[in-house]
Amino acid sequence: MQNARTVDRDELAPFAEAFERTHERLWRALLAYAGDPEVASDAAAEAYAQAVRRGVAIVDIDAWVWRAAFRIAAGELSRRRREAPPVDAPDVASVEGALGGSAEALELLDALGQVSDRQRRVLVLRYVGGYSAVEIARLLDTSAGSVRVSLLRARRTLRSLLEDHDA
Amino acid sequence: MPDNLDDRFRSLDEIAAPDWRARTEAKLAQAGALGPAGASPQRGWRPVPLAAAAAVLVAVVAAAVVLRGDNGGDGPAGDRVLVFDGLPQGVEFDGFLVCPPVMLDISRLDADLELEPPQEPVTGKDDASPYVLRWQQDGRTVRLGYPVVDFPLLAVLFPTEQVEIDGRSAVLTHQTDSVLLTMGDRNGCGGFEVLVDGDDAAAKSLALAVAHEVRVSAPDSRVEVPSVVGLDLVHAQDALARAGLVSDQDRSFGNFTDPEPVLRQDPAAGSTVAAGSTVALTMQPPVVTSTTIAPPVDGVVLPVQPQPLVCPPALLDVGDIVFRSQPTVAWANAWEWTDGDMNKVVHLSWPSREYVEGDRGVRELTVAGRPALMHDGGDGQDLVFDTGLPDGPCRFVEIDVFDPGSSAAREARAVELAGQLHINPPRPAGDVPDVVGLDVPAAANKLARAGYIPDWGAHPALSDPPAEPPADRHVTHQSLQPDGYTVRLDLS
């Protein structure tokens, strides 16, 4: 690993606090985004590990980790698509088998797998991450206006997909 | 029911999240970053490079094949690179080009080049992409492509440094596992990017060496301009790029995802121009005036979406507003259009939930003689004002203005738009629809489309968050009020 540095365990305290604060929410957000618990766990862990290696250089640990984790998950999904036939929908069966979850949750994951990557990100950040449009805009390095446009359309798409499920 | 997405997403809480702390520590230990107490590495982890540019470059690539065949392994590398008029014989693409391969002169590179394989289906203009060449050099993977023309999605900020190559200025970005060298115009075909695996001195040297060998220049040849009128942006860019031409469209009129046809092109189809020339494209009507959109009623000119409405669109007279893009009536009556460029968006709607987010403060004011609130959302101003209509979901109108400018400028624009917006008196068409038995969103939608204002008892004040029609309640009785257009709904 390039640029590795040794981290004193005392330096880990803020990261441990951040972990306690957000680890479940982040993991579920990544699960909803990627549809794969393994990708979610790896992306979350890698993001925290990279954050720890940067140490005090990171001002806002939560924001940094969320950004990085989604970037890593996106990279992993891209890698998988390169190496395997395209799989657009999250692997809901693996979630059901490995982790359980209600039919409603699985339907939601299935529907999320059918919306575009961009729309899925804003939906997940909004509804699982609990971020506002302004915060999402910061995470996505875009404007709140475009986030709201994406959210508007994403909600419309998701509602339609869920209605199909419910029908 | 899918109406409450908050509830839907809460169902994910039922899925137990694993404790991945040990995995994090294993990664730190694996990287040598954690003290001796770190956990041992887990099996099965494949490090995923945190390479923003790699992901951006890779994720948007639409070019689909590896150069092959007739360019085969013989001869110098310069014979096989993409210096030609159009694509080589036998090369098939299932994606769309943005910039012409003919302009990326890499004839001085000595490498076994291939095109990056496709990443994602190409469905809209945002997905069209420059193509990316990839090769191995000095044990590293090197990628070369035109600068990305797209919205940044998830960006991780990395340290950068300015470098100079042959008198040309470039930016070198140090990423976690790679370096990205960006030369020239980031949003067009006049520059290029080099991405090299690894963020160390060797990677930097390699990126600089590659950049030294690359030129963006047009061949000395002339090409015929194809006709792209009527094509959407993706196909127009692709057709021009394949002809060796650069497209230049006025993005200010763009929408975010919907394909828009090219109305005009300059030079005209059939003209003969130098390869690498720019063809200016005019997308969809540059200015849409009130005469083309009024009256804003169902199925006339405005593309009212099939999603449930709450208020009759005809209440809002937008006749004095000059739109910079085709406005649409979206979900829950939100009108939206771009207001100068793609980052300037205007929403016109009855208040939506989002207006309370990102609060930087709310203040009261008077706009066009009406009580109003101005909400500063940080990079957007939300103006809510009283229409004077009866209590209910249609009493307050919201104008959201987003653009990268100042709060004062956004506020001024919102006030200006409010002054140009007129509230039409409700004009119901026909008898009151029977909505007894319907859930409230369905009842509101049916009434709104008939020109009536639904009133289910939600009377938010100006400063209150709006109340969406409750999906879990049904209409048990309806009564037309004396004003002739408000329909009072009693609910179960």
Q: What features would you describe in this structure?
A:
The complex is a heterodimer of chains A (167) and B (492). By secondary structure, chain A is mainly alpha-helical. Chain A has 8 helices and no strands. In chain A, helix 1 runs parallel beside helix 3 (61-83) and helix 5 (103-112) crosses helix 8. Chain B has 4 domains: 1-41, no CATH class; 52-216, no CATH class; 222-283, Trypsin Inhibitor V, Chain A (2-Layer Sandwich); 287-492, no CATH class. Chain B is elongated, with a radius of gyration of 28 Å. Classes of the chains: A mainly alpha (167), B alpha+beta (492). The interface between A and B is large, with 86 and 83 residues.
What is this structure, in a nutshell?
With 167 residues, chain A is mainly alpha-helical. Chain A has helices spanning 13-34, 37-54, 61-83, 92-99, 103-112, 117-127, 133-140, 144-166. Chain B contains 8 helices and 26 strands.
List the helices and strands and how they pair.
The complex is a heterodimer of chains A (167) and B (492).
Chain A: H1 13-34, H2 37-54, H3 61-83, H4 92-99, H5 103-112, H6 117-127, H7 133-140, H8 144-166
Helix pairs in contact in A: 1-2, 1-3, 1-6, 2-3, 5-8, 6-8, 7-8
Chain B: H1 5-10, H2 21-30, H3 52-59, E1 104-105, E2 114-115, E3 132-137, E4 140-145, E5 160-165, E6 168-174, E7 178-183, E8 192-197, H4 201-213, E9 215-216, E10 222-224, H5 233-242, E11 246-249, E12 262-266, E13 272-274, E14 278-283, H6 290-293, E15 316-317, E16 328-329, E17 335-338, E18 345-349, E19 362-367, E20 370-376, E21 380-386, E22 396-402, H7 407-420, E23 422-423, H8 440-449, E24 453-455, E25 475-480, E26 486-491
Parallel strand pairs in B: 11-14, 24-26
Antiparallel strand pairs in B: 1-9, 2-3, 3-4, 4-8, 5-6, 6-7, 7-8, 10-13, 12-14, 15-23, 16-17, 17-18, 18-22, 19-20, 20-21, 21-22, 25-26
